[in-house]
């Protein structure tokens, strides 16, 4: 088993260290060392609250590399309804098959299918575990993050957070786009 401890730089595993029997790897990375990955995904509004801990079993099958692992961290997100910051614990398991990059199909050759989402490619003489772990984090971030399932959100009139207290604003019933059809009188 290889234990990388607290990593300040990208965690990588040289290909020559991976046998057919496999290699067990555990590592931990501080949020500051993960910031370079966040630059590529700047449209996702989150930050790492705690270190990212990972564990993986890596083995070779021919020229491909198989990875079965878990990641664990806590993210700081913003609720889409009330705009309050909240923490989101994340624990995820993943399985990934990596092929040499020269075997990667071009975009013209193939559309991605569901099974292909668990495929990846490597180049050079090492596997970048930090990058793989961050990609898994990005895949697990909720599309519509909510601080809690029953979040009421903000008042559309005054902007007060209705989870904390109610307001005195007069709420008008929102009409649907089809409300005008109720008033339509049909004659035959």
Characterize this entry briefly.
With 188 residues, this protein is mostly beta strands.
Could you characterize the architecture of this molecule?
The chain has 188 residues and is mostly beta strands. The chain has three helices and nine strands. Strands 1, 3, 4, 5, 6, 7 and 8 form a seven-stranded mixed beta sheet that branches. The protein has a two-stranded antiparallel ribbon with strand order 2-9. It is elongated.
Q: Specify the number of helices.
A: 3
The amount of helix comes to: 10-25%
Q: Please provide the ordered H/E string of secondary-structure elements.
A: EEEHEEEEEEHH
Tell me what portion of residues adopts beta-strand conformation: 35-45%
Largest sheet composition: 7 strands, mixed
How far apart are the termini? 81 Å
| Broad shape | elongated
Give the oligomer, counting copies of the same chain as homo and different chains as hetero: single chain
Structural class, from helix and strand content? Answer: mainly beta
- Number of domain units: 1
| Uncertain parts | 112-117
Mean pLDDT: 81
Number of strands: 9
